[in-house]
Specification:
10 helices; transmembrane helix; about 0% strand; membrane; elongated; ABC transporter permease; mainly alpha; about 240 residues
Length: about 240
């Protein structure tokens, strides 16, 4: 019963935050549409095996896909200036709201935004290719496998972002995020040096195995396991965090 109440309270927090920041959702939708339009032509080039675009496509997907797991909000825009995430935790601790409930509400936000933003982003890509008849060598089922594979990565990497968001002050969170982004850039460059391409590899496995793609299921499994383990670790440290 206590576990069920925790999820109900988490849902209340999630709905409250969504209502307060509902006007920011417009920017959220616009960015996902822009991201989808920008990446659609690049994905077409990669699917045609034009190697010059492989490093850039990998870099963009590794750096920008974590944003799919976020809703834009006043809090997310002002965390560096106002340390807004720490202020939020301080407010919830006064109420008081358990750390587990805060984590559950954050996970609800992540799951819903990943589905919502992912639908807009990948839907835009598919729609553009369908309208302009750009053959990606993928049917709709294979494209879904491709999209789900990258959404698994979104869940995985956002486990780290939630950890930093709830346990670090605004400036520290900013610099750690920059380091994490730089790390993904280095990874994409290293892969290209060895003539590899994550995006191309994802396309190949999605075309070959469709919804049975081992990479897709592995990505989802790792994503949810990473999210669960980082959630446990974050809650443990959150209970002892000094918010002053």
């Amino acid at each position: 019963m206590m576990e069920l109440k925790g999820w109900k309270d988490a849902w209340v927090i999630f709905k409250r935050d969504l209502c307060v920041d509902r006007f920011y959702l417009l920017w959220n939708v616009m960015f996902m549409l822009y991201f989808g339009v920008m990446f659609s032509t690049m994905l077409y080039s990669v699917s045609r095996d034009e190697g010059v675009f492989h490093p850039l496509a990998d870099c963009l997907m590794l750096v920008l896909m974590p944003i799919v797991g976020f809703y834009f909000s006043r809090r997310s825009f002002s965390y560096l200036r106002e340390n807004s995430y720490t202020q939020m935790l301080w407010y919830y601790r006064i109420l008081p709201i358990p750390s587990r409930t805060i984590m559950k509400s954050r996970h609800l936000q992540l799951i819903t935004s990943t589905i919502f933003n992912g639908f807009i982003f990948f839907g835009t890509i598919f729609l553009i290719h369908w309208i302009w008849k750009l053959d990606m060598n993928m049917g709709i089922v294979q494209f879904i496998a491709f999209a789900v594979t990258w959404l698994g990565y979104t869940l995985c990497i956002n486990g780290l972002y939630i950890y930093m968001e709830l346990l670090k002050k605004g400036k520290v969170y900013f610099w750690l995020s920059m380091i994490l982004m730089l790390g993904t850039v280095v990874v994409s460059v290293a892969i290209s040096i060895f003539n590899g391409s994550l995006v191309r590899y994802t396309i190949d496995l999605s075309v070959r195995y469709s919804l049975l793609s081992p990479l897709m299921w592995g990505s989802l499994l790792i994503g949810f396991v990473m999210l669960y383990l980082m959630g446990i670790l974050t809650v443990r440290k959150l209970n002892d965090r000094d918010l002053i």
